[in-house]
Amino acid sequence: MSICKAYLSTDEAILSHSPTWGEGGSTAVTAILINNQKLWVANVGDSRAVLSRKGVAAQMTTDHEPNTERGGIENKGGFVSNMPGDVARVNGRLAVSRAFGDKNLKTHLRSDPDIQYADIDSDVELLIIASDGLWKVMANQEAVDIAKKVKDPQKAAKQLLAEALKRDSKDDISCIVVRFK
Description:
Pfam families: PP2C. GO terms for molecular function: metal ion binding; protein serine/threonine phosphatase activity. Keywords: Hydrolase, Magnesium, Manganese, Metal-binding, Protein phosphatase. Residues 57-76 are annotated as: Disordered. This protein has helices spanning 2-16, 18-21, 70-75, 132-135, 140-148, 153-166, and strands at residues 25-26, 28-34, 38-44, 48-53, 56-59, 80-81, 89-90, 100-101, 114-119, 124-130, 175-179. It is of the alpha+beta class. It has one domain (2-179): Phosphatase 2c, domain 1, CATH 3.60.40. The strands form 4 sheets. The chain has a 4-stranded antiparallel sheet with strand order 5-4-10-11. Strands 2-3-9 form a 3-stranded antiparallel sheet, with no helix packed on it. Helix 5 crosses helix 6 (153-166).
């Protein structure tokens, strides 16, 4: 599928530039709307997309956590650490099991996305795409409830960011809100 190829190409491009850009990596979430009727969502890592249908939140992505994909990590020679007071980490370092880049851990990580599909009809109100800094401090339904109250999608995204900061999010926070009506 084209989405899978795009994700793998992106990972290869990032890895090829690692001497210049450094050894880090990134998570990603992508939403593709076709003819205002078909929505395809793909992701690697813990960035997330949440759809609101009649006010009910529906998670469109899979959070790629090391414990969930432990078998694949261990089969590739890696390990998952579970230190008290911390999240599970690949080789004691990375808190996701799929990511772009991260050259030093690449032999244990995947960069192929999970892909979901949804029909867009009159019941679908909005889509929230955000990094884990939002989702670590806010449930999917809470985010939908906040975003629904604000007509302008840019202002809705800013409201979600402000709420995440108010809740003392310690991680990166990026957010996009897409309105369908």
